[in-house]
Amino acid sequence: MLFILLGVLVLHLIILILLIVSTAASTWSVGDKVSTDLWYNCMTTSEGYHCKPASNEDWIQAVQALMILSVLFCFCSLIAFLYQLFRLVKGGRFFFTAIFQILASVFVMCGAIIYTVMSPDIGAQFGYAYVLAWVAFPLSLVSGLIYIVLRKKE
Amino acid sequence: MLTVLALASVVLLGIVPEQSQAITIYTGWERHALVGSDIRLSCSFFSWRWTSDDVTFSWTYRPDGSRDSISIFHYTGGEAYVDNKGPFRDRVEFVGNPGRRDGSILIKNLDFNDNGTFTCDAKNPPDIVGRPSSVRLLVFEKLPIQAGVITGAIIGVVLGLLVLIVVIYYLMRFLVARRVFSLSVSKHGKKKKEGSQQRQIKV
């Protein structure tokens, strides 16, 4: 049973790392020597590497907010899991952990969908931070569902 | 002793009016406005002397990317003279109060061609040594949203809702424990839990 616990914890940590990297790295769209969103537009010119702040449009700010919220909620669910692991009554379920994790997955999903729909059609392709967001969404959903069915040992 | 002090103060006050002192002029730094709207460009000054009757205000305009300034407003001798030939004809109105050191003007029906720098120069004789102050006007079609406003708003609302839900949850638990409320589902809830125990994965 220790393996299940360890596995669940490792999965949670992986999800948290994926979310943090996806939120912090500014490479949701990449082009030839250009990488943009979520926070900076950076380009490599002959003079070097220059960054300026990303555009202030509404949808980019919404994606920023949703990604930050998902990181916060994933982190809170980790804290709640560790807390409930030691303080839950025997036979109890990890409700708080599950709720926070599922909310985090919903926020990542909303952020990734908004970015997919609203990002400009021309030119750039999607970068690795965008891919990580889409990978983190099903992982966090599965993790949240595992927490719902998990029960503390009698 | 007192007479010496009185004489000294009179002499000093008598000397000072002969020199002119610096006058400090205040305008905004930058103003944003929408096309078609009106904007009030404020200009006030600080001077060590009382506001004289010969106080003058003058506003000049320099378009973006140009090096020439044109004069669009002048107030002198109690009369305001507005632009009646240049780009601002019939659009400038004097809304200041010279007695209160306010030389503000109102520009109506803004257009994209009005982007530029407006300079206010005020003189309060004999205080004429001063540096004119400039305000930059930016005309937008739609006012841009500052970075981080929507981000902060969404995060704040969600976290606020979370705190609210947690508070309500603990409040309800507290009130149920104190028998203020009684939940009729409590008996059903217990039976359901015991029934489904066998089917769960256990840690």
Describe this structure in words.
- The complex is a heterodimer of chains A (154) and B (203).
- Chain A is α+β, with helices and mostly antiparallel strands and 154 residues long.
- Chain A has one domain.
- Chain A is built from 4 helices and 6 strands.
- Chain A has helices at residues 2-24, 58-87, 95-118, 128-149, and strands at 29-30, 34-36, 40-45, 48-53, 125-126, 150-151.
- In chain A, strand 1 and strand 2 form a beta hairpin.
- In chain A, helix 1 (2-24) packs antiparallel against helix 4.
- Chain A starts with a helix and ends with a strand.
- The model of chain A has no long low-confidence stretch (mean pLDDT 89).
- By secondary structure, chain B is of the alpha+beta class.
- Chain B folds into 2 domains: 20-140, Immunoglobulins (Immunoglobulin-like); 145-186.
- Chain B is built from 3 helices and 13 strands; from the N terminus they run αββββββββββββααβ.
- A 6-stranded mixed beta sheet of chain B has the order 2-12-10-5-6-7, with no helix packed on it. Chain B has a 3-stranded mixed beta sheet with strand order 4-1-11, with no helix packed on it. Chain B has a 3-stranded antiparallel beta sheet with strand order 3-9-8, with no helix packed on it.
- In chain B, strand 5 and strand 6 (70-76) form a beta hairpin.
- Chain B starts with a helix and ends with a strand.
- In chain B, 16% of the residues are buried.
- Residues 187-198 of chain B have low confidence and may be disordered.
- The A-B interface holds A 1, 4-5, 53, 56-58, 61-62, 64-66, 68-69, 72, 91, 93, 149-154 and B 144-155, 158-159, 197, 200-203.
